[in-house]
Design a protein that fits this description.
The chain is an alpha+beta fold. It has three domains: about 45-75, no CATH class; about 80-130; about 130-225, Winged helix-like DNA-binding domain superfamily/Winged helix DNA-binding domain (Arc Repressor Mutant, subunit A), CATH 1.10.10. It has helices at about 5-45, 120-130, 135-145, 150-155, 160-170, 190-205, 210-225, and strands spanning about 45-55, 60-65, 70-75, 95, 100-105, 110-115, 115-120, 175-180, 185-190. Strands 1-3-2 form a three-stranded mixed β-sheet, with no helix packed on it. Strands 4-5 form a two-stranded antiparallel ribbon. A hairpin with a 6-residue loop joins strand 4 and strand 5 (about 100-105). The N and C termini lie far apart (about 135 Å). The mean pLDDT is about 80.
């Protein structure tokens, strides 16, 4: 065999080796790419869970994808707009007919029933009738024909000056009226005052201090009636 034939044979094998080397390189690249895709696929099936307060609805769930390719589940939690207690999916809830706030279901200190409509506590105070507990207790005393500021002070555990201010405020609100003059005067509750009592009893009726007040008022009325306790 001539030297020329030997050189051609070597060139032929070199070409084959180069081709195999290039093919191996391409296979390595393909394998690397497949590994990257597999890693991304594994990452995508991982669920990240994020919880947050739903300010615009009553709670929901959403599925989204992060910039890194992971699947994320967003849980939007509905809460009561007054006390911020969570509203669960299977629980009943109320809607304020005045402002649209989401509210806890009954029994609740977050809402009342006013003229067969649900009203939140904030709307009750700002748009309808605003009372504090001293005004409420003084109003209840007046409804039970207790007009003496001294007696109201003892029953409500308030100073007499607070009671006098409360009576004046209740008159200004149109919840009570004053009839007669001087020692012959007496306070009477108006229809609006009776309505206010019914509303705020829903709010404070089960509070400990209100229960104590109710017991003190009942005891006073019985003693005034001549009942020996």
């Amino acid at each position: 065999m001539s030297r020329r034939d030997n050189n051609e044979g070597l060139d032929h094998w070199q070409l084959i080796e180069q081709s195999l080397s290039q093919l191996s390189t391409r296979l390595d690249r393909i394998e690397t790419r497949l590994n990257q895709l597999e890693t991304q696929r594994d990452r995508q099936v991982v669920l990240n869970e994020r919880r947050s307060i739903d300010d615009s609805g009553f709670g929901s769930r959403e599925i989204s994808t992060t910039p890194q390719g992971a699947i994320q589940r967003d849980i939007l939690i509905g809460v009561c707009d007054i006390c911020k207690k969570r509203l669960y999916d299977d629980e009943a809830f109320r809607i304020c007919s005045s402002c649209g706030r989401r509210l806890c279901a009954s029994p609740s200190q977050c809402s009342v029933i006013y003229q067969n409509k649900t009203i939140c506590i904030e709307c009750l105070k700002t748009r309808f009738i605003q009372l504090n507990k001293t005004l409420y207790k003084t109003l209840v005393c007046t409804a039970n024909e207790v007009s003496s500021t001294t007696a109201i002070s003892e029953i409500t555990h308030s100073v007499e000056e607070e009671v006098r201010s409360a009576l004046k405020r209740l008159i200004d609100l149109g919840l009570i009226t004053k009839r007669g003059f001087f020692v012959f005067s007496a306070y009477q509750v108006t229809a609006r005052g009776m309505e206010a009592i019914a509303l705020y009893r829903q709010v404070w009726g089960s509070d400990y201090d209100t229960l104590v007040f109710d017991a003190e008022l009942r005891r006073y009325i019985l003693q005034k009636s001549g009942v020996v306790l």
